[in-house]
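Question (not urgent): is this output format expected?
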Amino acid sequence: MARATACLFLLVFSFTGLVFASDVSSEAGAVENETGSPSSAPSAGVMPRIPENYNCITCHEDLDDETLTPPVNGWKESVHREAGVKCADCHGGDPVDEDNAMSKQAGFIGKPAIIDIPMLCSKCHSNAKMMRSYNQRADQYDLYSGSVHGRKLLSGDKEAPTCVSCHGKHRILRVKDPNSRVFRKNIPETCGGCHSQRKIFEKRRKPFNQLALYKKSWHYEKFSNGDLLVPTCVDCHSNHGVISSKSRRTQTVCFNCHSSQTDYYKASPHWDAYQKQGEPVCLNCHNYHDIMKPVTEKFTGDKDSDCVGCHDESGNAYKTGVKIQEVMKSTISSFVSASAKLKYFKDNARGGFETSDITEKIGKAAEQIQELNALTHKLDIEDVKRESRKITQMSDSVSASVTYMWDEIKKRKIGLVTAWIVFIGFTYTLWMKSKYWKRPDKHAKPK
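Got this back:
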């Protein structure tokens, strides 16, 4: 009986093992088939093997030509190679038949004409099913076709940028690759590569100093110091769907980031004027590319982008600006003074006092200064005064606390000096008394 039970157990165990092995083998086969499928997205950074009989690659490598070989080397590093996109997918031809490799009958087109490039790229990039497997959008061609760039190209302007102007021709890298021309940190230089060319834009009577102006801006100062959330060209002008700088969307693009300023602006007389005549809007006062850090001097400055550019100095609007400037200067002066006093105290007082409360208070005042700057866009002097008083009160409170602590330190120092004087005087008195009693004549017997 025991032997029969053991045999039955071995039989069941062997059958289970065969079924399990079959399942594992099937799963492995499924994974292999899925990975090898042209429609599946490859893992990032995994380069597929280059077919041995793919003549385009082997031939261009063997040529060792300074013009014809670099494209292959660039492609080897590209995201297209990762995705399995090879030469014939863009250039046509038969890569496995050496005789028909560059045959027109095999669809060889060689170097694509500039005007054909967007449509060529769209063969894949407008295929929603294909792009879904890479988690990518499929509307780039539609956006480009309606853009300033796309319309210029379709009108016959061969200097208009196409896909390869920004993404490269063969060494096309992922957007998130730091070496990519469209990596966020590289965007200004990529766009500026064209938009700083005098020969292209001068004949079109267009400016070509946008990059130079942007590099003077408050935006670029923060961007160049590592803050990649700061706007670049594509944040204001879009990437594929670049629209005219005169469009309403571009004129009001600042609203997307500067929400507080937008809310106050829309409650101001400027917004009413913009609704009727199309200005003033953010760009009229803060410039387009060379956007500087806002300062109170704009209220009384002499540039076209300052208040005087639109308002007569004798008018009520200009006078309101002067009043706002006076309040702002007074408030900022009070805040800066309090901040400096607190910093100096913390650096030189050498402890002994709890300063967390006033540190928090000055931090809150700093936040309200930012809000006050935004509030000036409403152009309501009474609102500005009301918020200013709150900040001034906090700043004055911090200054008073710092003054009190310095006074306390002085008192402590005076007390310490007094104590030392008393101690030294008392010690000296004891020493003199002791010396007096040790004199020999004090112990001599009277005669």
